[in-house]
């Protein structure tokens, strides 16, 4: 979500004349543009990450890619009567923590891992 907000900040038109004189001296396009971006910002801020959960009765993950380390792809899951989501493997048939079959009610893909930025 942070990336979207950063992009919106870069898209905003800077005022050249100050808030009071801007509407009279510059095109009202900039104000309309920035107003629209503010609405987009509000929509992004209102987005609830819990909406990313996919119930298993609606859809299962795709067939896992071949992997020589372990059998399956890793997902974030929620189990029946569980209060904390955790990661588990999907082997194409069921979710497992590596020891037992899990009673999963919803899942979501893991985000991309953090990549450290190189400072110049």
From TrEMBL:
Organism superkingdom: Bacteria
Pfam families: DUF551 (PF04448)
Domain DUF551, first and last residues per copy: 53-113
Listed InterPro entries: DUF551
Protein known as: DUF551 domain-containing protein
Species of provenance: Blautia obeum
